[in-house]
Amino acid sequence: MHSKSVAELSRDLESRKVSSVELTQEFLDRIKREDSKYNSFITVTEEQALADARMADEQRAAGNATAWTGVPFAHKDIFCTNGVRTTCGSKMLENFVPPYDATVTANFRQAGAVCLGKTNMDEFAMGSSNENSYFGAVTNPWGLSEGSKRVPGGSSGGSAAAVAARLTPAATATDTGGSIRQPAALCGVTGLKPTYGRVSRYGMIAFASSLDQGGTMARTAEDNALMLNVMAGFDPKDSTSIDREVPDYTATLNEPLKGLKIGLPKEYFSDQLSPAMEQQVRNAIKEYEKQGATVKEVSLPNAKLAIAAYYVIAPAEASANLSRFDGVRYGYRCEDPKDLMDLYTRSRAEGFGEEVKRRILVGTYALSAGYFDAYYLKAQKVRRLIQQDFINAFKEVDVLMSPTTPSPAFIQGEKTSDPVTMYLEDVFTIAINLAGVPAMSVPAGFVDGLPVGLQIIGDYFSEARLLNAAHQFQQVTDWHQREPQ
Amino acid sequence: MTISREDIEKVAVLARIRVDDEQVSALEKDLGNILDLVDQLGAADTDSVAPMAHPLDAVQRLRADEVTETNQREAFQAIAPATENGLYLVPRVIE
User: Fold this and answer.
1) Which residues are bridge partners to A216 per DSSP?
2) What is the CATH number of the domain that holds B34?
3) Where would a tag sit more exposed on chain B, N or C end, judged by fewer CB atoms within 10 A?
């Protein structure tokens, strides 16, 4: 059962082949048995999950079921869950129990899905290896059999590792600079970052508000579509949510790909990419050509500036967002503060980890008097240039394809000594967040036994087309079905 | 671009993060590296480019000025480090 997709589990529940209680218990048992190897969960909500499963079985019996009723899944620990601890991977929120649900949480609850628990992540979603979690690093299920402990990517490393290890069929995730696509690629699962504004950010703990976007992670494109059906939509509680109709993302999965125009950004097939990775990605693109797609080279001339622009904009917004953690209203408070300033500065020094503090300091610097124009304003202008590249590219082609990452999963500890080395991990994903367009990572092969991700990028609100392209690829390949040993 | 010890101390105060003396050298190096990376932006010609704040250039929605939320003070204060009679407690500010 644990290797079945959300779509299959949903059908099995519908035909009474299995009950939600049985299914939920099976996944809970797997987590208990297996997760000490991966550390992919921060909190497992066993009692709540079984209670929700019992309710889901009653709902099914009463004929009030949605596709999700009784299907187990997990939330990245960045989505607030009413009454269930939500840590965002930080000591600052180690004991934070939100008094409300994120909109995404409420949507899954409404649909009758059963939350197994909260997945591990880089602290405040800042990181590309999941080594910045206060609750310990996550280990990639791939590579373990060769005795190497590799990173799952980040920041949604717990979600990706849990899905890859079959501890949950699906998990929510968030993506500010690659935090869904990069871990999905490194763990061999399918992930989607929707258009900015498509999924509500309400109750999703903020990192960089103009870039943050909630999204999906599962093994198949079809399951990502089922997730997005629940998650997408206008939310008056999110001031940047977009009021636009939500299609049924599963309805167009089977459209033929004949005539699909694929662009290959030449900047993403550069010398940063290992030849073995490039070979896998080119093979994947050949599959699309076999299905009648056409391929041409395009250019994103300003993409090379994306990391620089991002490391102004994201830290600047983080420094403002994280100013709310003051040791007064909720979260960590230092022992015996001698005055108010001591309370603030020590609570924040002790409650935040090193990477989070670095980014707050960089952001504060970039926003401080005398530097605002040179850094923040300049980065926002470059951001528009980057966006314009994508707008121009989508005048010529329907989708862009590239590798998701320059290399497969690396060994834990390999890139922790210099923050900038780690930042370069997101070289192919970060421009997409700056432009605000949607993109996926789809399993597309292996290099040295480690998964390779194909990134598919679309124009604004083209999630249905991306999911269709990924689904069709998964009808003729089985990379997404491979299980780590 | 290098960042000085004084800059780091000043920024730490602005950010309300205590930075101990022995941490400053490491921060000088790490923040200096990050700012070096960021300095690539200087190469871009952005003279006639408008800054971009939202990918779809959306603006803040307005709503009627009506009370729509209910008061949940007790629920919110239940998770605070220290409260008394509905107030948040902090160290004495005025002697």
Assistant:
1) A172, A192
2) 1.10.20.60
3) C
